[in-house]
Amino acid sequence: MSTLASVLVTNGYLRELCAAYVNETIDRRTYILERRRLIDEAVAGKPSAPPAIPEPFEPDATAMMDLDSTMQLPRRMLAEDDE
Amino acid sequence: MRWHSVAITDVGLVRQINEDSLLDSPDAGIWAVADGMGGHSAGDLASEMIVSALARLKPAANLSLLVEFAEHQLLAVNERLQALSRERRQVIGSTVVSLLACDSHAAFLWAGDSRLYRMSMGELERLTTDHSKVEEYVKHGIITREEAHNHPDGNLITRAVGAAEQLFLDCNIVELNEGDRFLLCSDGLDKHVHERDIATAMVGADLPTTARRLIDMALAAGATDNVTVCLVEVLP
């Protein structure tokens, strides 16, 4: 990989890394170590792996609440409330 | 790589004091523009503290270490400004944009709306993204990039050295190529001078003439703020 191509790839990775640090997705130590790695690799013209940023937490779709199985109040109780 | 540079700052036509500070240190390969806020004996002090701290940077073995040294210095200034702000009960801070060259590459660190541009092969490219309300409006599609120019919220920045307990500096790198020109500037320039006019001014003249031309364009447009430009050219 040419250093120009390497720098272009690193530009995107560094933007992601800075954003992850600002959003507190990664801690300061990880930020500094990853930034150092990305810059050193770009300067050496080496292809870089993306920065190690944990995926944002998203609930597993299969673990979502099944609305059909939610508890329903018996009709009689609802009728009493109306009264 | 070798380079040469020129820097000019001007108080402008409205302000009484110049709260901008600059660092033009081609021997060390370090340049910076800082735009202070907080009024007399505050904004100018903040920006001066930043450039003084960067001027004390020791040579580093490589670019990533140079970035770490620079960040360390700026974080220390942030702490001192925070203490000063508490003592004086006022916000004292400053934007910063700095260019750090090491062999064939350079890194740039910034906070706030002071900018870094690169003129390469006749194309002007903005390398920094403002930490400002207006930039957030553009990012979220509320206004267009064209509408951002001279927007009424143009003075609202979201990051600055000294503005918050924790300072987040943005960082990126660029490859240095012969003939490339870099422009570091305070918002006193881009507030008044459109990027297409900056691009036109950046070609066809030597660095001192170009720097003077940029300042004069801001002055001709009213220069309601301090104006600072720092030009760096990569030599063969």
Description:
- The complex is a heterodimer of chains A (83) and B (236).
- Chain A has 83 residues and is an all-alpha fold.
- Chain A has a domain at 1-54.
- Helices cover 53% and strands 0% of the residues of chain A.
- Chain A has helices spanning 3-22, 28-43, 75-82.
- The N and C termini of chain A lie far apart (77 Å).
- The model of chain A has no long low-confidence stretch (mean pLDDT 76).
- With 236 residues, chain B is an alpha+beta fold.
- Chain B has a single domain (2-235), classed as Phosphatase 2c, domain 1 (4-Layer Sandwich).
- Chain B is built from 7 helices and 10 strands.
- In chain B, the strands form 2 sheets. Chain B has a 5-stranded antiparallel beta sheet. In chain B, strands 2-3-4-5-8 form a 5-stranded antiparallel beta sheet, with helices on one face.
- In chain B, α1 runs antiparallel to α2.
- The longest helix of chain B has 26 residues, at 63-88.
- Chain B is globular and about 50 Å long.
- Chain B starts with a strand and ends with a strand.
- The mean pLDDT of chain B is 95.
- Chains A and B meet through α1 and α2 of A and α2 and β8 of B.
Report the total helices of chain A. 3
How much strand content do the residues of chain A show? under 5%
Cα-atom radius of gyration of chain A: 25 Å
Spell out the helices and strands of chain A N to C. HHH
Query: Which bin fits the share of residues in helices of chain A?
Result: 40-55%
Please name the fourth-level CATH homologous superfamily of chain B: PPM-type phosphatase domain
* Strands ordered across the widest β-sheet of chain B: 1-10-9-6-7
Q: Give the end-to-end Cα distance of chain B, rounded to a whole number of Å.
A: 7 Å
The description of the largest β-sheet of chain B is: 5 strands, antiparallel
Tally of strands of chain B = 10
CATH C-level name of chain B: Alpha Beta
Radius of gyration of chain B: 17 Å
Question: Which protein chains are joined by the largest interface, and how many residues does each one contribute?
Answer: A-B, 17 and 17 residues
The string of secondary-structure elements of chain B, in order, is EEEHHEEEEHHEEHHHE
Number of helices of chain B: 7
Low-confidence stretches of chain B: none
What would you call the structural class of chain B?
alpha+beta
Oligomer: heterodimer
